[in-house]
Design a protein that fits this description.
By secondary structure, the protein is α+β, with helices and mostly antiparallel strands. The protein is 20% helix and 14% strand. The protein binds FE2/S2 (inorganic) cluster.
């Protein structure tokens, strides 16, 4: 099997190449979404493996590669379980990331159906400001 980076990988892995190159760069992404895979968020999720579901959806949309690639990463508990399921959005501002969508904390993503995820991914691709759209965000205290 060959992964998205063109590396032949060990059976059962997508990120364990058969030939290890410590200097091979990671794949470009415009946007990275961290999806909480902590116990409480995972229990609320519609999918056994939310990250895999989202990665497959990104392939359908051709946003798993290229200039506007959206990278999905699992994370453990954000310490914000009351807002579960939690997902955060970070933009690659060293490349072509859209700074207005940097550090967005989304709540209740377990309520998203496939179409809602498509809306989010499309908005990110098109650099729509999430602050101006109706995605519920987790409030954050001002620095005092
Ligand atoms: S388990 Fe997701 S924020 Fe705690």
């Amino acid at each position: 099997m060959v992964n998205n980076m063109g590396s032949e990988v060990e059976v059962g892995f997508t990120c364990k190449p058969k030939v290890f190159d410590p200097n091979k760069p990671i794949m470009h992404f415009k946007t990275q979404i961290f999806i909480c895979d902590g116990e409480r968020c995972k229990q609320s999720s519609k999918h056994e493996d939310e990250a895999t579901f989202l990665r497959e959806l990104l392939k359908e949309l051709n946003l798993h590669q290229g200039q506007n690639r959206i990278k999905i990463s699992r994370t453990n508990c954000f310490g914000a379980c009351r807002f579960r399921q939690v997902a955060t959005v970070f933009e690659n501002t060293k490349a072509n990331g859209f700074i207005q969508n940097n550090n967005i904390w989304l709540k209740n993503t377990h309520k998203f159906d496939k179409n809602r995820w498509i809306e989010l991914f499309t908005a990110l691709k098109n650099n729509k400001n999430l602050d101006e759209l109706d995605f519920e965000q987790i409030p954050m205290n001002e620095i005092s």
